[in-house]
Write a structure and sequence with these properties.
The chain is α+β, with helices and mostly antiparallel strands. The protein has helices at 3-19, 47-52, 96-104, 134-143, 148-152, and strands at 55-57, 62-64, 80-83, 92-95, 113-116, 129-132. It has five helices and six strands.
């Protein structure tokens, strides 16, 4: 008797107690149980489909509307995405813009970062993502006026000089 038949047989035994009809001794081939479909649950979606379910396309940017990294709302600047399998322990979180870059361009080399040309941290549009070094990213941040110190007044009266 297979495991599935064993479960169904125990269910039928409980049902017989309530109804009073005897249970047949054999639940082999040809019984009504053999023809029942086995419910296995939904098939898992591919990573690409799961990723695109969390993207809202606007005229220029593709905004990540899934989970975001950080604690408080004002610190949640970048989106993240779960990849890998829970069953084999390879499950991990990756930044959404890095995942998109790796799947549309190439792997990210050591020492490089993915920079947003649109200055929108939640954007995952592949056309807006470029590779950059840390120093070029910081220089770009200051020339575009995105430095947090400038917003808070820490750099008042100082001008940023680009290293280029």
């Amino acid at each position: 008797m297979t495991g599935r038949n064993r479960v169904v047989r125990s269910f039928l035994r409980r049902s017989v107690r309530m109804v009073g009809t005897p249970l047949p001794d054999s639940l082999g081939e040809g019984s009504f149980i053999e023809g029942l479909p086995v419910k296995t649950g939904p098939k898992p979606l591919s990573e690409d489909i799961r990723f695109l379910r969390h993207v809202k396309k606007t005229e220029s940017c593709w905004l990540w509307v899934g989970a975001r990294a950080g604690g408080r709302l004002e610190h949640q600047r970048y989106g993240y995405f779960g990849v890998g399998s829970r069953s084999d322990g390879s499950r991990r979180r990756v930044y959404a813009h890095r995942w998109m870059y790796e799947h549309t361009h190439s792997p990210i080399p050591e020492g490089k970062q993915v920079n947003h040309t649109c200055d929108t941290p939640l954007c995952v549009n592949p056309a807006h993502l470029v590779l950059a070094t840390q120093s070029s990213n910081v220089s770009d941040m200051h020339t575009r006026g995105r430095a947090r110190g400038k917003q808070r007044g820490w750099l008042k009266g100082r001008k940023w000089e680009s290293t280029k």
